[in-house]
Amino acid sequence: MVKKAGIFLFFLFSSCFLSASKISKAYDALKIFDYFKAKKLFYSCLKKEPVLATYGLATIYQRNDNPFHNLDSAYKYIERSYDALLKQPPDFNKRLKKFCLWDSCITGLRVVIHQKSYHYYLQKTKELSVPVLEQFISNQPHSVFIKEAIKKRDSIEFVLLKNTKKSMAIQRFINSFPESEYISVAYEDLDYFRYKEFTQLNNTNRIETFIDSFPKSKYLVYAEDKLFEIAFEQKRTNLLYKYIKQFPKNSHVESAWKNLYSLEVGTYSTNSLNYFITKYPDFPYKQTIEKELELAGVILFVVTKNAKEGFIDTSGKFIIAPEYEGLEEFSDGLSVALRDGKFGYINKAGEVVIPFEFEDAEAFKNGRAIVKKGQDCFLIDRSGNKASNYYDQISDFTENLAIVKLNGLYGAIDRNGKPEIAIQYKRLGDFSEEVAFAQKEEKYGYVDRKGFPVISFLYDWAESFKMSLARVKFNNKFGLINKTGEFVLPPVYDRIDEQVNGVYVIYRNNFYGFADSTGCLLSEVNNINPSSEKATELTNGKWLRLIQEDEQFLMNKNGKLLSEKEPYEEINLPRYGLSKVFINDKYGFVNERNRQVIKPIYDDAENFVDSICIVKKKDVFSVINVFGTPLFSVKTNALEKLSPDYFMYTDEKNILTICNKKGEAVYFPTSDKVYVQNNRYLFSNDANTTTVYDLINTKFILQN
Questions:
Q1: What is the pLDDT of residues 272-297, one digit of tens each?
Q2: Which of 196, 384, 443, 458 is most buried when burial is the number of CB atoms within 10 A of its CB?
Q3: First to last CA, the chain
């Protein structure tokens, strides 16, 4: 991909070279791949044209399709070009523009050559060695990868020991090099390798030996969890109960009780329940489980009555009285509730499970919830027990890790609240594809789940990986890297939008174009920048929307235009196979073969959603299907879609009306604050009370 980026930079300016001067003749020769002539001419221009000549030589030496390919030479001349550029007066850009060049071309090629050279040295031998790294450091002292090379050189001995994955080898390193900068990492590895050695065979006796021998281990809870997993997978009730008694504060105790209950109680009957309680008199969740089972299948809605919130079922009966200042939907069997300015948790029976003592609280997910008490944020389990240390902030879990902030720095914890990444980074992103971006000092890089750097801290900005690619900012320009840190798109762009189905919208000099996830440019960067448009309105991954001065086109990724002979004033991306077009001051729709499916007769039109579309002609709104057939029409000022099957409008008598897809009026709300749930129940908030109407059975289930 780096090669493609270099070729692209070359062709971008090659067609614009002048032919009068010697330097122009050099670039003309380069354009037709006459490397011998180009090289000779560039050398003759070194004194008079230090920037352009050295840039040309760097281009020749970095390419591998000629006999002069030499990355050390490429490095030498791109550095000379870069240094010469820095010494030029401010108006030197005018000189560059004559050759269709700009300063970012030089900085972009410099990054590409540095990267190619560095990876060439890394791949010179089958095994990375100190002599190879020393050669790189000596030959290319100004490379952007010099710090990384030095660090690699210094860490080889430690890495070799670490790769043994043996605790004894790490212990020898600690004993031999107690002052090493890697000593803290070595202790972490020692702890981890011990844990793996004692637990990898899933032998419960060895796991218990680890717990007894290393009570301060970071992986103590993991060992406890391992015992729970074994007991759960093997369905051993005796081991589950032993686990409960041995580790009463572990986060899995509640799960262990519930699994023990499900294994022992074959049928939910009085006899089996009495047998279970007799055998396990310390079982703490009998009432909770009974009520949760009873109410598990009940659908509940949050409603307001007299400015207080409660829950009703689908019959309109209040299951939980309206006595709370706020409620959230149930998650993990509990609802976040607000009473007297404090947050707590209630179950579906309306019982307070966790007291109202928090300044803020989030819903439970997988047995954990984030709460705030005073200025401190921490995790709790479903029993309300504190499950983590105190932090200033805690994010939602992604890939089973939550990012935490303390005293202005960031780290990460697991679901048990145990620190997984020490508090050390100025910024730390959510984990995606097993890595997260991090900021150290003023630069961004990427770390793994243990906090170890996997991509060096080189960037001015970075984002999370998606589809194994991430946008980064380098030397104030945006590029695209893969998970090895290689540039797929060189950092020469003013902006790159988030990818849409593998396609990126790229911007330069207030114009935009497209590139795919391999770094291949799908269009020229010559489209007018639509500042109000989102990336999802410019591409769907299959079609590219090109906006010119007075016309617009759709082009597929192979470069074929949908409407080459008949450009539109406006054309949108296809939805349900149809693109909205604007022509002769009217809206219509064409299919993906540019055949007119719905004639341009409408004054306004939305895009298709749920296979239907709202259109307007004069003062009449209609809902049409993908064939252009009206489902219904109504004369009104506005028509709003509430759900796939229901709409709201104000009729000619100024009466607010809810209708179905046939246009039949099914309800007349007194407030426009309405919404539909489950495509059936209409909620209308009037003053301080909620009205609920069953749209299918056409009856109120809750009414003032």
A1: 666 777 788 888 876 755 666 566 66
A2: 458
A3: 66
Residue 9 pLDDT exceeds 60: no
**What pLDDT does 297 receive?**
65
- Chain centroid, CA 9 distance in Å: 30
**DSSP, res 88:** S
**Least-confidence region, from 28-42, 98-112, 225-239, 301-315:** 225-239
DSSP string, 527-547: EE--TT--GGGTB-SSEEEEE
Between the CA of residue 253 and those of 228, 244, 431, 437, what are the distances in Å? Answer: 9, 6, 27, 34
The Cα-based distances of 470 to 79, 107, 463, 490 in angstroms read 27, 20, 6, 12
Helix runs in 355-453, H state only: none
Contacts 24+ apart (CB under 8 A), 638-643: 639/614, 641/609, 641/614, 642/674, 642/675, 642/676, 642/682, 643/676, 643/679
Which DSSP string do the residues of 437-485 spell out, in sequence order? EEEETTEEEEE-TTS-EEEEEEESEE---BTTEEEEEETTEEEEEETTS
Amino acid at 395: S
User: Distance between CA 559 and CA 597 in Å, rounded?
Assistant: 24
Q: Sign (positive/negative) of CA torsion 320, 321, 324, 328?
A: positive
Report pTM. Answer: 0.65
Instruction: Identify the structural domains of the chain with CATH numbers, from first to last.
Output: 2-139 (no CATH), 205-284 (no CATH), 398-475 (no CATH), 637-704 (2.40.10)
CB of 499 closer than 8 Å to CB of 488? no
pLDDT at position 13, please? 42
Contact 598, 578 (CB under 8 A): yes
Task: Please state the rounded mean pLDDT for residues 345-363.
Answer: 93
Q: Tokens 């090493």 belong to which residue?
A: 180
DSSP 498: P
Residue that the structure tokens 């047995």 belong to: 367
Beta carbons of 569 and 582 less than 8 angstroms apart: yes
* pLDDT tens-place string over residues 632-663: 999 999 999 999 999 999 988 889 999 999 99
Give the C-alpha separation, 675 to 86, whole Å.
Answer: 61
Q: What is the pLDDT of residues 160-200, one digit of tens each?
A: 677 777 888 878 777 866 766 777 888 888 888 888 888 88
